Amino acid sequence: MSVSVRIPTILRTYTDGAAEVTADPGDGATLADLLETLDQSYPGLKGRVLDDSGNLRRFVNVYVGDEDVRFAEGLATPTPAGASVSVIPAVAGGC
Amino acid sequence: MTLLNAPTPTLAGAFGNAVALSCRECGTRFELGAAYACEECFGPLEVVYDVPRLTREHIESGPQSIWRYRDLLPVPADVAAHPGLHPGWTKLVKADNLARELGVKSLWVKDDSGNPTHSFKDRVVGVALSAARQLGFTTVGCASTGNLANAVAAAAARAGLRSVVFVPSNLEAGKTITTAVYGGTLVAVEGNYDDVNRLCSEVAGDQPWGFVNINLRPYYAEGSKTVGYEVAEQLGWHLPEQVVAPVASGSLLTKVDKGFTELGKAGLVEATPYKVFGAQATGCSPVAQAFRAGADIVKPVRPDTIAKSLAIGNPADGPYALDVVRRTGGAIADVSDDEVVEGIRLLARTEGIFAETAGGVTVAVAKKLLAEGLLDPDAETVLLNTGDGLKTLDAVAPVVGPTATIAPSYDAFQKAGLA
Q1: How close A77 comes to chain B (CA, Å)?
Q2: What are phi and psi of B359, to 5 degrees?
Q3: Does B148 touch chain A (CB under 8 A)?
Q4: Which of helix, strand or coil describes residue A45?
Q5: Which terminus of chain B has a lower count of CB atoms within 10 Å, N or C?
């Protein structure tokens, strides 16, 4: 069973316009593994989510299920089969 | 699906002197349109302008609303002729009684509870709805902690647009009712503001709607500059030495700074030094915590405070608020919910201004910063009151009430010792 990933509008150029894609990073995979797997199907995608030193970019939020990965284990957050992951620009909202 | 990212054909002058959107992080430029995050690095997009030479007289001859500053905003020259709430030009109150109480020489309160829906949000919505109109949106929406919900629902009603407003389901009744009454779609989401914001970010990606604080955010945020413009103009065209602003996402604080800087660059005021201070409630103080820790990154928190309009645990402009405060030599502090209530009462008792919880946060933080020696009591200081206490009655209901309840007789009045 694979992981579903919601793609924000600004990254859909990498996914032929698809708003949601699936990937199978394997058993025991983490968010980092998932991004590797996605990058093989959609080359360049990982480099948009991670900065040059391989960290999550400052203005991107990633959720595994309902959990903001910054509250979990960041890139080491497990992404088990059946999980749904959302990538969302962080610069929204507020006053 | 990609509708929102497609450049929308617009009329010449639709955005006034604005020429492009530019990423604050990497500087990549994009066409003016419904976009908010950089395609290269996810950084926030900001409006850039090519502003002609302006004079004080030109501004002073404009309408008594934010539209007197239209040349410095992404709006068409005839923006004031379109149906809208025309917010702004709120009172700058010389707060001598509060100054005396706090031991400050010169103190002002910029009272944005005087806006059409009683908060500073009418300013940002005014600019965002102009952009929505120019880009051809017929439905506008927002993620809100309440004040923005009021402002969007009301302004959409006036402008004849559909509104779809998302709020946390635990919002104060005062803010739910004052949104619902305008008749738009109001969606109560079972979660906190950050959950609402996440949901709206996903909805905005797939619906052809103009979310004022998501895909219209670059325009929306510019509206907050008008607080800075007005303060400077109302002080007789000079910058205050200190300003204290509440911090939720951090956008207001950064835009007040931008407003001051722009006025200086345009030669409309002398570019004198000023310090910007930020105010948070301890129960949601990620930016204050980062300030104290000397960190550049704001670690998200889960909010727990009565100051719900400031309860943003993952503040989008937090890093920029830190930059502004550090650059200008200010500080960011936080206060307990009890201190917030005391701040509301202090402002009401001394100046006759009933602020919502965010205003209480600002007053209480100013008091704390004075006690800590971080705010200079001899410097001209402006406190920003962003909203009206009538919307957050629950905050003070437990601690204020009738002085006495008596029988309707003169005898009872005398016995109560009220004379």
Answers
A1: 17
A2: -65, -40
A3: yes
A4: helix
A5: C
